[in-house]
Amino acid sequence: MKEVKLHDIGEGMTEAEILRFFVQVGDEVKVDQPLVEVQTDKMTAELPSPAAGTVKEILAETGDVVEVGETLLTLERVGGEEAREDKEEAFVGSADEPAGNERTKSKTNTMRIPRTKRVLAAPYTRKLARDNNVDIEQLTGTGPAGRVTDEDVMSFVSKKEASSRQVDEPADSDRKFAAAAGVAEEIPFRGRRKAIAKKMAQSVYTIPHVTHFDEADVTDLLAVKASLKGSKPEKNASAAAFFIKALQLALAEFPIFNAKLDEENEVIRLEKGVHIGLATDTEEGLIVPVLRDVERKSILDIHHEMKELTLKAKENRLAASEMTGSTFTISNVGPLGSTGATPIINYPEVALMAFHKTKKMPVVRGENDEIAIRKMMNVSMTFDHRVADGAKAVAFTNRFIEYVENPNLLLVELV
Which amino acids are annotated catalytic? Predict the structure, then answer.
């Protein structure tokens, strides 16, 4: 008998939520066949079978939150067939037990249920289906190779809702009664939301936050961006890519903000590489993929890699290695309409910068005090006051703004 346990599929994870089982009691499985899909605080993952055999017992249910090391199911292994060594080691705590072990006395229904078909779909699409109570295996995919897309799910939901309204449209009196009843909706506080809360609380309770506000004239930068896109489409890059390169150059001059405080050893460690965390809003909450070694990348490299990381974050496809090791984090909330905020530092980093809404404003310029309409962007720079002082933060922000307002200093990075 073999126990299949939840193993650590991400750096430092301690628990995961069971999203669904792909097998039933009595099913025969092969090595590497997906057994169960789980959601950690950072990703959705499928756990493969470490051995060939028959599913003897399922010890968890959909929706359960289990800790690393807990047994999810047991397999009765095929006679003479052994799992590969690397798969054995991957399942932490997995061990063979005598066939007569008491744990094999199943509390679940042992009637064999025919295995349902396995459809192609991204993790986010599967979540979208679950959230809308849609059996994704009943959908016909319109994507490549029959893959079920987000549009397939939402189209099914729309048709279902339209049909429901026609058949059972509630009376106005029923709606009023439901509203008057005041029934509260409950949202589970676990998984990624719980992990975000824990990290934010740790940062606020540990770090004395100070936020410095400023504004940058991005008129010339946006003009350069537009001209590059117009003349050479392959040279197109987002404004955020320019900002990140400007930050990297400023951090080279002010390395104290590309650092981490080790209180236990009483030392501030200045990081050698600039690894930018990209605060990304997803359906399941905030996640921070990491753009590594920015100092080695051009603005175009930054743009393309940032776009890919953001897409993977929204589709829940990030690997654990793509979510760790950031040295400085940015939050680009301007497109959402934000004009200012006091961001919380991504512990254990020293600082975070937020880019806010860009708007046209009359600005006094030049020696003759001429008034011109310019595109101005607000900036929030939050820093750890244990590590740096206000004067240093202002100087760093000023240097960043100088690069942004003089994009010619950055153009060399495009070639």
Answer: 385
